[in-house]
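Budget justification aside, the reviewers requested a transparent look at the raw inputs and outputs of the sequence design task funded under Objective 1. We therefore reproduce one unedited record. The lines immediately below are the structure tokens for a 172-residue chain.
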């Protein structure tokens, strides 16, 4: 399987060396800061986060994956609980507390619960690699809001799913 990079960053804003040149947010921690003179808001963040979640759901459906297994996990449950409780975004993060119990390597997480793992990862509470070997799918999240995916879908299908959510596949 070939790894693909899914990002919110427009391909037109990369230079010839593959470096992104626009002034743009890269983390939820950037909420409240200005980028190119525009305030980055919680609503804007949640909208982009929703697109990433939709991509994961769509890829799972397209590959007939009812679940993803936690293949690799970097998470300290107590630390995460305390970090969420102290978060300035507690009003939206508190709902993630119920999913802390899912954080165990090799656990199967069904599509109905995968949203919280994606949020925990995008919000930088955990680092996780998710996979379903039977359906040939592997997902991991990187810093700066990168989603890396290897799956059995052909490039055209994967690109359609990603573009449908306003994101970009392999933009460099």
């Amino acid at each position: 399987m070939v790894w693909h990079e899914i990002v919110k960053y427009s391909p037109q804003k990369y230079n010839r060396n593959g470096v992104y040149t626009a002034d743009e947010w890269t983390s939820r921690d950037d909420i409240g800061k200005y980028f190119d003179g525009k305030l980055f808001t919680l609503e804007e963040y949640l909208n982009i986060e929703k697109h990433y979640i939709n991509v994961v759901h769509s890829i799972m459906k397209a590959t007939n994956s009812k679940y993803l297994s936690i293949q690799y996990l970097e998470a300290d449950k107590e630390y995460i609980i305390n970090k969420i409780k102290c978060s300035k975004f507690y009003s939206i993060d508190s709902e993630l507390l119920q999913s802390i119990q899912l954080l165990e390597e090799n656990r199967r997480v069904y599509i109905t619960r995968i949203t919280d793992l994606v949020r925990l990862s995008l919000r930088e509470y955990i680092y996780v690699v998710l996979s379903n070997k039977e359906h040939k799918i592997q997902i991991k999240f990187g810093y700066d809001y990168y989603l890396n995916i290897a799956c059995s879908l052909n490039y055209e299908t994967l690109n359609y799913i990603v573009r449908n959510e306003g994101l970009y596949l392999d933009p460099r």
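The chain has a mean pLDDT of 96. The helical segments are 42-62, 77-85, 90-93, 114-122, 155-164. Computational costs for records of this kind are itemized in the attached budget.
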